[in-house]
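FORM 12-B: Structure-to-Sequence Request
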């Protein structure tokens, strides 16, 4: 029972203290006057009566009522109900009073004041119960009695009020007297009567309708934000202008937090005077009147909820963790169904008639039910995570947070973490933890409804039903008897408003004595009354279902875990059975499996079974494996150990051990200390508590067993399941019945149990915290052992904990000076642990002191044993690691850093990892070597099944494009290692992780060296220069004087250039350059040499000659020797005869204007210019072009005499000047005009050099041009013009015309094929069209098309009537003689002149930056750094994104256009960018396509030397070869060119003398810096370094090849690796490849790799390895019987070309070995090959086209056929010839042999007699094709030629047909079909299935058929 009201107080306005602007209130009277003992009078009530301040007002206000809440020092809440009304005061006397107090008032201007003012007066009722309505009624009654002057004395009413006693809570069974209890009718003696309903269960909060109001005011989301904020301890401030609403809102917020109780500052109404409370650092819930809104603005971390406006403002710095999904979503749904039931049916066509929300009171309970349901889900199973550590005298309970979060799989969840760490939850545990207490609704929900909640959570309607049920219970609790409602309370008679009688008396002072008498009387009565005993219904709290299975059913268990657990179990079994090899094989799988939780738990259980009596002694290897598994298990545990795995391993690490020596044992714990979990105080606490709980449980189970009267049978059955909590509950129930002695005995037993566990844990902690080598402070440094205060159950936020931690040691006088000493810091850590757990679990002080003295001894003792273990463990032999293999080095290549042990980690390429089948070669363990030339990894795969293979991966250091640090977790090891990812532009990637034995500073040194080698100071630091020199050659001194020598050199060059301008004819004597060693400096070296120059007979030049410096003379003579000159002479572009004898009619001459590199530094010394242009003009013209690269001739078409020119683009200012109509008369020619005139003259000179220019003018019009050719035999020219139009269209066309994507390539191709269709050339008229198109689909079919159609398709516009292209550019009446291919961007503003003979073709060029970025993406696509599961990042998608193919397409397209133009007789000038990137690509490709010479070895070399090296492609700059060019990055322009050549090679495999390998070789070595060929940016730079000509002379060191060409020549002599056996050129063949993306292939250079030997481009290294096995084999006699000839070839491991060479290479190899065996001098392969070719030629002389059939011998493995040509194939042994149209695509179906060359030609050289070739013959019936009859034929099976031939009859020599056995798939017995020969048994039929069709045969009888089948079968199997 409790008093309804503790105090009644009257508070009034304090007239005496009216000093300042604000008035004050004072307590006029209070009853009772002396405090109750159990409930002191609260202070400061007068502040709360008028929270906004005490003020006088001019007119009377209506009476107000609200309830404020005060919290006293014991955190008890007092409810102060304030009823305030207003009383009149007389103003005049008030002023007099003021005047007497303060004189200064007089001086103020008098304010007109009303005659009366009103002062507030409050009646306050203070209670510990919260019955708002009852208080309102009671105070209202008192006021009514006073105002209406009723006959009842006020003292009686107040006396009755203060003596009224009511029950706190009603009982649960509403019996009669119970009903009396919970229904208390009270009367205050003024004719009133009220019924007070008390709640049935006190623990549930009473909310009235405040929760529903709160939701109405703020909305669902806002309230949820406030709810989460309150739970996660944020500061919340409510604003409203109504006080009662503030109280209600706060009450509502607290109600929905049930079962958690809010334990921080809670002030629903805060008086204005106390506003500074808002800046408190602790969390709070406070309400403030909106009147003070402005003062709340500067609060930074307070969440403000404005009830009147319905907003919640969250400051930026506050982050509220919300409920975890899906709970948040489900809660919101449930709330909206309660608050807005219409929402669900809002869209229904026939909405139900009424879906009104419930009444406010009911709705309030429904909302609370939703939150109750939410908490039941959040906390389900919490009782299983309680540790009970003491039962007597008081239960002590701890909550195991980590386990709870781990089982929920929510250990990462912010919200739950904060809630569990919060004060409210701590209160929850201490209140609801005890197992023996009264239970309430929440306990029932957690225990019995969890299953239901989980099943229904997905179905909102079922959830709603449950919530309605809960709401009903809550409502019932608050209103047990809703029917009884008897309220009879009088209200004031008339409204106390304006019409109040003036003479209303003030509230009278009351008589204390009378009231006190009432109170005393009631107290006496209570004493005499018998005490009310209300039985508390305590009981055991049920725990509900455990958590474990809940989560697992949610599917958080790993898939296929059963298989993994099996692997773990097997491995452990193998280890303990000592089957180490088996264990080793399983180990990688086990370590992978241990990522999963199930496998880790399984491991701990399995290991437990192998522990006997707390000990398991292992041998070294077993120990090693077990420790590795433990480490792997622990490394994935977080420091919280939420799955309890570390906890399960803790007893095991002290059990497994190995003997190290006499009496010295090493335990597993010394090897698993690296993990964070051991330094986490919370982990140790949880472990300690769970152990204590187990021991205490054991303690009481023994006690129970000891009781004699217990029914033993029942004990045994039940004991298994009795949990510690259940035991504790039972013990608590029995506790009052025990005698004092028994009680103290039990308390002592429990205490000593805890104490012994504390000692045990002190030992355990010292085991895991003291490192094996105690001199190293490893652990403490990494984890801050001695620092952080544990925050497991202390309620300080982490930031504060940090600051406390720093000062943790201050009381000991010195801060952390001792933490360096391991022992001390471990002792401190253990001491803190012991203090904490012993205080919480009530260990006595004596015991605690004993512990503190014991701990240092324990630690010291342990250190001593560890020292011995450490000493012994050092003597153990280290684990066997694979030995490091040394790589073979090139001669001259030296190691910079010796091998460092590393692991090669697999990257995104799947071949080597075994994912695509085959063995997992990676990861591999080995070493990385850094040499002066390469970076080499050599090692063996980690997988034991392929351990004997050697894995090599290497790339030249110069090709390194990107290096980045990575951290790698190896699957076999436990720790994350630092590693490097190195990417090379030879399409190689190395991901390496350094072994733990490699010191990190060593790895750093490695990186530094690598960078130094990758970017040397100067090009002379590259490998090509340093090779073969001893270490003496340091790069530094060179760098110092470099600049000065260049300066002097260039000065001299310029001087002598001026002197020697007249001289043009230079010859050269033999010149031997000095060797490297004896050159002191560049200058002197050049001077040492002697040279004579034969001059013209001009006297002046003779005198000059003697003054020429020898350096210049040498330079000059070498220039002549350069490759270009040889080529110019071959092309007839100019000869170096002297000027007198030069024939004047030669259109071009070789100019020496640039011989000193003064005109253009990046051009060669000799250039071809028009005969008529003097050198002086050239010097002027060159200024108009970028980099001075003016147009020069580089090739001439021998047939049309059209020339190809190259230059850079024009300078921007030159462009407009160039195209402004130059014929306009200018009065004074300015500088610019004159140059542009000269420029024009230059172009005109080129045009006039063309023979076609001087022909008849009729040729000049387009129509004339075509008509002249109409009737020539060269019919292919008919379509020439429109075709070019189409080409131009595509080259220049808008972006859409270029099929840039893979998908549109096909369409483009079709259009293109049509536009280029040629008339079919019949096989008989051997008059071949000039030129070849990539491939023309069934030319015969398309030739019928009108050319305009093709043109229209290509040009997308209707053609002009004359069939010419319709583009405005080509409307001009004539064909231009010179086309200038220029950059679109540059040609803006230039206008076309219709009278000029040249035309500009603007195209879009790919920028160098584009190439660079595209290449980067290409590398990432071909060699990804990690496997990508994203389907959008597949190889083809990445390839497309890189746009590499698009760039190739553009370059090829422009080149084909230029080839076309040149072939029609127009000259072309390619003038793009700076003239050294795209220009070079296009010009070289054009020459390659147009001139067969460049498709040979010599020609290609010459082409590269001329166009790329002499014309100054900036190899060093684009390849970023030195430090200076590092920033510009790697741009593979040359690689792009080689890729284009590769594409052409694929389309025309018979036109190239060199193989694809040759291109790959160049692609590799142009970046490898092994040769000097591709270093430096121009001839000028090469001369300056003296490297241009030394290649010729110097042969001192033959191993070191300085030129890649020499190296290729040498190799080519030895082996046919670079030779293309299919090479069979046609004369004057012009190639026109398809350039559409659909026709381009990804070059396998980008994707292939050979792990067995590394890249094969350094031939010595690879060759060296291959020979060794060959030498060993002859020694062993072959006794093993039949050995398999099979060999397994692994892609990406073996070099396929080597292991499975093509037939010809194989034959050549065999020939060589045979010659060697016979002791003959083996002849060179080339000679052998040439011999075979010539013999074959002579044999096939009869044929019309010898060259072709000879080539068929070489094309044994040819997949592409020579295209669109009729071919004669010779049939050996039969004199006929079959004409096969080998149109690749069109006719593949019509002839069986079309797809591949007939094998028979291979045998045509063996002149054999018929008999040899006939293995088996006879007559067979053969079924013809569809609808044809069966016919008998004579069949011959020929084993030699591997074919089945058939003839009309036996005598017939004319073969009717051939079935190639190579194409036969199977021979099977057949069934007779329609029209088969009669009278033949069924068994005689058989079918022969080939790749093309099925042949049906029939023999004379079954025996015969069987014979045939066997013969064919044996032929097949022999093959």
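FORM 12-B RESPONSE
SEQUENCE OUT:
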């Amino acid at each position: 029972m409790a008093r309804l009201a503790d105090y009644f107080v009257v508070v009034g306005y304090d007239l005496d203290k009216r000093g300042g602007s604000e008035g004050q209130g004072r307590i006029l009277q209070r009853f009772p006057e002396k405090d109750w003992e159990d409930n002191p009078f609260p202070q400061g009530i007068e502040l709360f009566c008028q929270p906004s301040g005490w003020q006088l007002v001019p007119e009377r206000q209506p009476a107000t009522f609200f309830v404020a809440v005060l919290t006293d020092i014991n955190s008890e809440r007092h409810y102060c109900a304030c009823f305030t009304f207003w009383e009149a005061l007389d103003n005049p006397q008030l002023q007099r009073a003021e005047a007497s107090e303060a004189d200064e008032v007089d001086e103020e201007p008098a304010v007109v004041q009303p005659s009366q003012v009103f002062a507030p007066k409050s009646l306050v009722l203070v209670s510990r119960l919260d019955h708002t309505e009852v208080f309102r009624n009671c105070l209202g009654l008192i006021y009514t009695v006073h105002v209406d002057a009723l006959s009842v004395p006020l003292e009686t009413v107040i006396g009755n009020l203060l003596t009224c006693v009511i029950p706190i809570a009603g009982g649960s069974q509403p019996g009669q007297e119970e009903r009396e209890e919970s229904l208390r009718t009270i009367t205050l003696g003024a004719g009133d009567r009220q019924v007070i309903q008390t709640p049935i269960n006190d623990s549930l909060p009473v909310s009235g309708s405040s929760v529903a109001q709160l939701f109405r005011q703020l909305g669902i989301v806002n309230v949820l934000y406030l709810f989460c904020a309150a739970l996660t301890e944020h500061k919340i401030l409510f604003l409203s202008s109504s006080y009662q609403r503030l109280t209600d809102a706060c009450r509502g917020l607290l109600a929905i937090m049930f079962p958690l109780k809010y334990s921080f500052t809670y002030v629903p109404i805060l008086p204005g005077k106390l506003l500074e409370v808002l800046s408190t650092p602790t969390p709070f819930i406070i309400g403030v009147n909106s009147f003070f809104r402005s003062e709340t603005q500067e609060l930074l971390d307070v969440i403000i909820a404005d009830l009147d406006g319905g907003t919640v403002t969250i400051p930026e710095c506050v982050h509220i963790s919300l409920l975890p999904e899906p709970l948040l979503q489900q809660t919101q749904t449930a709330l909206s169904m309660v608050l807005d039931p219409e929402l669900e049916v809002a869209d229904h066509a026939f909405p139900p008639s009424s879906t009104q929300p419930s009444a406010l009171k009911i709705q309030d309970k429904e909302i609370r039910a939703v939150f109750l349901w939410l908490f039941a889900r959040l906390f389900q199973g919490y009782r299983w995570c309680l540790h009970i550590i003491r039962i007597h005298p008081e239960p002590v309970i701890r909550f195991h947070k980590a386990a709870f979060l781990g089982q929920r799989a929510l250990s990462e969840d912010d919200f739950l973490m904060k809630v569990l760490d919060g004060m409210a939850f701590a209160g929850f545990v201490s209140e609801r933890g005890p197992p023996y207490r009264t239970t309430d609704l929440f306990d029932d929900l957690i225990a019995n409804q969890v299953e239901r909640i989980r099943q229904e959570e997905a179905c909102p309607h079922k959830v709603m039903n449950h919530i309605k049920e809960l709401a009903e219970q809550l409502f019932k609790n608050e209103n047990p008897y809703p029917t009884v409602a008897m309220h009879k309370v009088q209200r004031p008679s008339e409204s106390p408003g304006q019409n109040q009688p003036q003479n209303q008396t003030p509230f009278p002072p009351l008589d204390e004595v009378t009231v006190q008498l009432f109170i005393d009387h009631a107290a006496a009565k209570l004493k005499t009354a018998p005490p009310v005993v209300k039985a508390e219904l305590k009981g055991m709290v049920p725990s509900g279902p455990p958590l474990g299975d809940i989560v697992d059913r949610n599917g958080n268990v790993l898939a296929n875990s059963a298989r993994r657990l099996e692997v773990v179990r097997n491995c452990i079994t193998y280890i303990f059975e000592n089957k180490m090899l088996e264990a080793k094989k399983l180990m990688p799988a086990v370590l992978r499996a241990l990522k999963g939780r199930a496998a880790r738990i399984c491991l701990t259980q399995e290991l437990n079974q192998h522990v006997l009596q707390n000990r398991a002694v292992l041998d070294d290897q077993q120990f090693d494996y077990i420790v590795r598994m433990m480490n792997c298990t622990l490394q994935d545990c977080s420091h919280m150990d939420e799955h309890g795995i570390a906890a399960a391993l803790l007893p095991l690490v002290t059990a497994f051990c190995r003997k190290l020596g006499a009496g010295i044992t090493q335990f597993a714990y010394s090897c698993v200390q690296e993990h964070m979990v051991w330094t986490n105080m919370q982990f140790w606490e949880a472990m300690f508590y769970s152990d204590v709980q187990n021991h205490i449980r054991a303690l009481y189970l023994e006690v129970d067993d000891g009781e004699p009267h217990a029914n033993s049978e029942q004990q045994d059955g039940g004991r298994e399941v009795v949990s510690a909590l259940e035991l504790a509950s039972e013990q608590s129930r029995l506790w009052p019945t025990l005698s004092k002695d028994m009680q103290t005995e039990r308390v002592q037993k429990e205490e000593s149990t805890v104490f012994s566990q504390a000692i045990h844990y002190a030992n355990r902690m010292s085991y895991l915290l003291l490192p094996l080598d105690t001199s190293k402070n490893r652990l403490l440094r990494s984890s801050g052992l001695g620092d952080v205060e544990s925050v497991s159950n202390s309620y300080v936020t982490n930031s504060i904990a940090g600051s406390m931690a720093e000062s943790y040691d201050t009381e000991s006088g010195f801060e952390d000076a001792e933490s360096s000493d391991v022992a001390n810091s471990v002792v401190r850590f253990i001491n803190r642990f012991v203090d904490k757990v012993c205080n919480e679990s009530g260990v006595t002080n004596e015991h605690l002191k004993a512990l503190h003295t014991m701990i240092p001894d324990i630690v010291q003792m342990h250190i001593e044993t560890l020292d011995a273990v450490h000493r012994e463990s050092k003597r153990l032999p280290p684990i066997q690691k694979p030995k490091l293999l040394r790589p073979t080095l090139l001669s001259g290549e030296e190691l910079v850093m010796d091998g460092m042990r590393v692991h090669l980690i697999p990257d995104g390429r799947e071949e080597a990892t075994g994912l695509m089948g085959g063995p997992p070669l990676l990861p591999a363990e080995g070493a990385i070597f850094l040499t002066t030339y390469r970076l080499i990894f050599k090692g063996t795969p980690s997988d034991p099944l392929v351990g004997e293979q050697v894995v090599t991966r290497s790339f030249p250091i110069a090709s390194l494009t990107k290096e980045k640090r990575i951290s790698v977790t190896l699957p076999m090891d436990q720790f994350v290692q630092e590693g490097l990812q190195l990417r090379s532009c030879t399409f190689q990637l190395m991901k390496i992780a350094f072994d733990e034995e490699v010191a990190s500073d060593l790895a750093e040194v490695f990186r530094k060296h690598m960078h130094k080698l990758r970017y040397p100071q100067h090009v002379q630091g590259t490998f090509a220069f340093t090779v073969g020199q001893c270490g003496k050659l340091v790069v530094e001194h060179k760098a110092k004087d470099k600049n000065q020598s260049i300066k002097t050199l260039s000065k001299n060059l310029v001087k002598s250039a001026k002197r020697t301008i007249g001289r043009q004819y230079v010859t050269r004597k033999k010149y031997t350059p000095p060797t490297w060693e004896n050159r002191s400096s560049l200058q002197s070296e050049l001077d040492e040499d002697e040279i004579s120059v034969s001059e013209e007979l001009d006297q002046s030049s003779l005198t000059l000659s003697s003054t020429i410096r020898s350096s210049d003379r040498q330079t000059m003579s070498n220039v002549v020797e350069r490759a270009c000159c040889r080529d110019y002479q071959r092309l007839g572009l100019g000869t170096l005869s002297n000027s007198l004898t030069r024939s004047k009619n030669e259109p071009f001459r070789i100019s020496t204007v640039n011989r000193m590199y003064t005109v253009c530094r990046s051009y060669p010394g000799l250039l071809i210019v028009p005969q008529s242009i003097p050198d002086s003009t050239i010097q002027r013209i060159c200024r108009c072009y970028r980099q001075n690269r003016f147009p020069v001739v580089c090739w001439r078409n021998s047939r049309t005499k059209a020339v190809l020119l190259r230059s850079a683009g024009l300078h921007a200012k030159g462009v407009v000047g160039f195209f402004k109509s130059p014929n306009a008369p200018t009065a004074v020619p300015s500088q610019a005009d004159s140059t542009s005139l000269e420029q024009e003259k230059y172009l005109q000179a080129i045009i006039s050099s063309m023979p076609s220019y001087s022909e008849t003018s009729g040729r000049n019009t387009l129509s004339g041009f075509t008509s002249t050719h109409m009737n020539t035999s060269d019919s292919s020219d008919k379509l020439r013009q429109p075709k070019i139009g189409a080409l131009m269209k595509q080259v220049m066309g808008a972006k859409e015309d270029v099929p840039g994507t893979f998908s549109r390539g096909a369409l483009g191709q079709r259009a293109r094929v049509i536009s280029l269709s040629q008339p079919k050339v019949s096989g008989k008229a051997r008059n071949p069209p000039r030129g070849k198109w990539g491939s023309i689909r069934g030319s015969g079919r398309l030739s019928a098309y009108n050319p305009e159609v093709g043109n229209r398709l290509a040009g997308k516009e209707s053609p002009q009537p004359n069939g010419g292209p319709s583009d405005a550019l080509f409307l001009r009446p004539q064909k231009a003689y010179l086309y200038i291919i220029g950059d679109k961007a540059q040609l803006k503003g230039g206008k076309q002149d219709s009278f000029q003979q040249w035309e500009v073709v603007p195209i879009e060029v790919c920028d160098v930056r584009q190439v660079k970025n595209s290449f980067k993406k290409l590398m990432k696509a071909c060699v990804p750094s990690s496997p990508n599961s994203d389907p959008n990042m597949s190889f083809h998608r990445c390839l497309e994104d890189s746009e590499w193919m698009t760039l190739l397409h553009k370059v090829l397209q422009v080149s084909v256009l230029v080839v076309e133009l040149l072939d029609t007789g127009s000259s072309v000038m390619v003038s793009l960018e700076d003239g050294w990137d795209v220009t070079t690509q296009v010009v070289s490709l054009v020459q390659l396509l147009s001139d067969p010479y460049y498709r040979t070895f010599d020609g290609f070399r010459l082409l590269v030397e001329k166009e790329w090296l002499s014309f100054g492609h900036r190899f060093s700059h684009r390849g970023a070869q030195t430090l200076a060019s590092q920033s510009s990055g790697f741009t593979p322009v040359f690689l792009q060119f080689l890729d284009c050549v590769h594409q052409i090679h694929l389309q025309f495999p018979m036109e190239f003398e060199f193989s694809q390998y040759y291109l790959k070789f160049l692609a590799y070595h142009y970046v490898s810096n092994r040769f000097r060929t591709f270093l430096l940016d121009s001839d000028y730079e090469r001369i300056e370094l003296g490297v241009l000509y030394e290649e010729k002379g110097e042969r001192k060191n033959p191993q070191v090849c300085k030129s890649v060409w020499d190296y290729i020549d040498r190799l080519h002599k030895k082996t046919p690796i670079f030779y293309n056996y299919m090479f069979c050129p046609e004369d004057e063949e012009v190639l026109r490849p398809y350039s559409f993306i659909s026709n381009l292939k990804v070059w396998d250079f980008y994707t292939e790799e050979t792990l067995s030997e590394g890249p094969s481009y350094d031939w010595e290294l690879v060759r060296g390895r291959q020979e060794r096995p060959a030498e060993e084999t002859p020694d062993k006699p072959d006794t093993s019987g039949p050995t398999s000839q099979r060999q397994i070839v692994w892609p990406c491991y073996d070099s396929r070309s080597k292991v499975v060479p093509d037939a010809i290479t194989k034959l050549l190899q065999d020939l060589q070995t045979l010659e060697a065996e016979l002791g003959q001098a083996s002849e060179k392969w080339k000679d052998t090959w040439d011999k075979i070719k010539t013999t074959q030629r002579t044999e096939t002389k009869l044929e019309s086209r010898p060259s072709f059939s000879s080539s068929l011998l070489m094309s044994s493995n040819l997949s592409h056929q020579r295209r669109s040509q009729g071919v004669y194939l010779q049939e050996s042994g039969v004199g006929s010839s079959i004409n096969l149209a080998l149109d690749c695509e069109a006719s593949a179906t019509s002839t069986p042999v079309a797809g591949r060359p007939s094998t028979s030609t291979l045998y045509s050289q063996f002149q054999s007699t018929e008999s040899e070739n006939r293995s088996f013959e006879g007559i067979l019936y053969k079924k013809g094709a569809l609808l044809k009859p069966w016919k008998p034929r004579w069949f011959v099976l020929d084993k030699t030629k591997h074919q089945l031939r058939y003839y009309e009859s036996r005598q017939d020599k004319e073969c009717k047909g051939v079935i190639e056995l190579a194409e036969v798939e199977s021979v099977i017995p057949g069934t007779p079909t329609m029209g088969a020969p009669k009278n033949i048994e069924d068994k005689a039929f058989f079918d022969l299935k080939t790749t093309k069709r099925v042949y049906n045969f029939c023999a004379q009888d079954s025996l015969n058929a069987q014979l045939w089948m066997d013969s064919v079968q044996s032929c097949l199997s022999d093959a």
